Structure formats: C-alpha cells, structure tokens
Task: structure prediction
Amino acid sequence: MKKYLIVVWALIMILPSALGQDKLRVAILDPSASGTSIDEGTKLAVQELISSTFVNTGKYIMIERSMIDKIMKEQAFQNSDMADNSQATELGKLVGANKVVLSAVSLVGGRNMLSIKIIDVQTATIDQQKTKIVNTNDLLDVVEPLTLELLGERAVYKKQETKFDTQTQEEVKEVKEEKPQKSNTSMENQVSIYTGCGIEIMINDLPGEYSWDAAMRACPQGWRLPTSKELECMCKSKKFIDRFYGEQYWSSDKKSDKKAISRTTNDCEVENEDIEDEHRCRCVRNRQ
Result:
C-alpha cells in the first residue's frame, strides 16, 4: 500500500510537467525606442499586451518578468543591449527560454512604427517578424492584433468600431464599407483597446451622471457597467484609457438593497454609496 501511494504521488508531481513539456518557454523583453520618446508607462503597456496575447493562446509558458530582471541585473545587461539579437539570445539562454520576443517603437515620418519579432534562442535567428506604422495615439490599439498576426492567429484591428480583418482583401473591403453603429445614447461605440483588464472599454463616459439603477440601464446594447474588480483595474490603469478622468464611477456590484459600489479615479478606493446618488458611468464589454 505504501509503495502504491508513493507511485501515485510521483505521478501527481510529474504529470503537470509532462502535460506542458511541448509548450515553448518564451521571454518577452522590454520594448526599445528609436527616434522617439515613449514613457515607461507606455513601454510597460506594450510589454504587457504582448505578454497577455501569448498567454491567452494557451500555447506558451512565459518566463516571469522578475526572473528576467534578476538575470539582467546579475549579468549587467542594459535594455539598450537587447536591440542586438545576440545579446537577447544570450539572455534567453540564461533564463531558460526557447524563444525571445523583442519589440521596438521607432519614429517614422511623424508616425510610430511598431516592430515585434520572435528570436530562436538556439539558432539566434528571427523566426517571425511583423511591423506596422500607426499614429502615436493608436500605438497601443495595434499591439495585440499585431502580436496575433505574428503567431499566425486571426487578428482584427479596431478603431471607432470599424473592423479591419487581416484574413483576406475581400473581407477587408467589406468591413471597411460598414458604417460605425450608433448607440442609443447618440454616441459612437468607440472602443479604447486596453486589454490589460480583460475587457473592452468605451472611449467616452456616458454624458451626465446617473443613479445606480439608471446607470445599470444606461449602457447601450452589448455593453454594461464594469464590476468593482474591473473598475479597480481600470482606475489603476487610467493612464492607458482614453478620457478616463471623471471623479467617481459606478460599478455593477451592489452592496445591499440601498447601497452600491463605486470607485474614485484619484485613489481607486471602494465607496459604498446610496443607490440614489449620481455618479459617472463608463461602459465596458467582454473582449470580442
């Protein structure tokens, strides 16, 4: 019986590794900048968007950021060194990665070019590379779809609800001819593509302020109020979200019959407010 238990325990310990052994280990490094100046928040957003896209495919094992930072510090690597494929390959080997992902933002004719490439650690060669030139304000909007293209996945570029599907020219032509739909609040359903919170976020607040009951009914079809947890993430990520600077916003979570949860954008603290109080609303929806 004792031997049997030992065998079962060994299988439990080995099975997770066996199931994941065919997944590539990927290290995603900080973006580099050339000819343009992007702040640390934007660099972090680009890195996180690339990382989350890899994770959501379920096909890769991601090297922890803390491990990469530790090795870089121990080996005295500089972020500027990572533009060199050989340096990136060396770092990849040290952290136990199969692939290294490098990204770069360059200023081109007044616009930004985003480049993302996958480097094979063993051969030090580029497996895949994708680039796209966009206006500065649209930079974060294209990171996820460009990464999906890099991975051979279906990619949809969204701007003001007009979709640009990368699959075929015929499909792109059809989509471009569509007009943006209007919501029942006479606002365009424009989407701020910040996916760090796992949701799509309307680019504007709803006009005016609402009681909680009115707020729950105010979002147009297909949209909703964020949960308290989602609203917390939005608050902490407000620098990446368009025009998100109202003082206090309703969540969809109710505390009691007469109380509901709101959050202020200045400190992200939870407030239990009377449902008759009036606050701002920012509608969200699940990622499409």
Observations:
- The domain at 24-160 is CATH 3.40.50.10070 (Rossmann fold).
- The CA atoms of residues 225 and 283 lie 5 Å apart.
- Helices lie at 2-20, 40-57, 65-74, 85-94, 139-150, 169-176, 212-218, 228-236.
- The chain has two domains: 24-160, 191-286.
